[in-house]
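Please fill in the sequence for the structure shown.

STRUCTURE ENCODING:
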């Protein structure tokens, strides 16, 4: 089983504070950290920590941050042989404020904008060797659509995590194998005319909606709504929790697990990831997740 992530690679500049500042307000920060991130890279690291064979496809700048990020992926067990180093373009940056067990994030795309159709054409033969591909929205939309098109034509499963939220063409939504928005992102994709339950029933065992502290929901092919409740966590930092869930879910469905089993493991992994600081630093191993699932049960 070989998995792939096509997406963003960022350096996170994370400041911790007592709380997140209000509009126009200045607060004293506690600490500033430079931490490897990017939704794509986070998801790849989560998958590698869970034991998957995963390759990261994306772009970084020819700067110190880019070098550190590629090395970090390699040390996590992610294949990086086809990451493109773009001259004269800075590596992507995410500015993150952490406070009150929550966060705000501003992303400056940088080299992530160079993950274009030409780049995908240059790596598509390697991409076609994979069993499943995970995508997000921190690279150009036309690239996301192109990867969905060429992978589905080859019968390769595609998981689309539509974050950050932006509209997606209906034909792309129909083509992906799994779609994993949160409630806000689902409203951007589908509007507010349908309830969560109605949406889930429209896309059984395809649409997975994360609901924060309530857990994660999907619909079985029988029409029964499946709600996997959130595990109680001693939250330190929620950054990367959604990426952990998506990475874990992708690994599990690639193994052929049923949707309930995949979501239970992914939900537990995401919860564990919030108990340590940093998006990737708190991501658990498969052994840690299984141990916690047994204890929690």
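FILLED IN BY: designer on duty
SEQUENCE:
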């Amino acid at each position: 089983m070989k998995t792939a992530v096509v997406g963003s690679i960022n350096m996170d500049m994370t400041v911790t504070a007592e709380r997140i500042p209000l509009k126009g307000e200045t607060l004293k920060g506690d600490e500033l950290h430079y931490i490897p991130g990017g939704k794509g890279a986070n998801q790849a690291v989560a998958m590698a920590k869970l034991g998957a064979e995963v390759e990261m496809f994306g772009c970084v700048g020819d700067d110190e941050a880019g070098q550190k990020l590629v090395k970090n992926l390699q040390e996590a067990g992610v294949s990086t042989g086809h990451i493109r180093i773009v001259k004269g373009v800075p590596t992507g940056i995410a500015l993150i404020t952490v406070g009150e067990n929550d966060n705000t994030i501003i992303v400056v795309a940088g080299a992530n904008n160079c993950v274009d159709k030409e780049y995908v054409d240059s790596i598509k033969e390697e991409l076609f060797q994979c069993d499943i591909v995970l995508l997000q929205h921190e690279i150009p939309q036309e690239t996301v659509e192109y990867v969905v098109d060429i992978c589905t034509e080859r019968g390769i499963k595609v998981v689309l995590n539509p974050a950050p939220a932006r509209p997606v063409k209906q034909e792309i939504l129909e083509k992906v194998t799994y779609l994993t928005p949160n409630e806000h992102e689902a409203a951007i994709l589908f509007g507010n005319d349908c309830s969560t339950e109605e949406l889930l029933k429209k896309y059984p065992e395809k649409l997975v909606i994360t609901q924060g502290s309530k857990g994660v929901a999907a619909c079985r092919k029988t029409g029964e709504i499946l709600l996997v409740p959130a595990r109680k966590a001693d939250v330190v930092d929620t950054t990367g929790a959604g990426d952990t869930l998506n990475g874990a879910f992708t690994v599990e469905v690639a193994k052929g697990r049923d949707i309930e089993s995949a979501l239970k493991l992914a939900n537990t992994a995401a919860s564990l990831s919030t108990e340590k600081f940093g998006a990737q630093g708190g991501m658990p191993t498969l052994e840690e997740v299984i141990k916690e699932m047994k204890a929690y049960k």
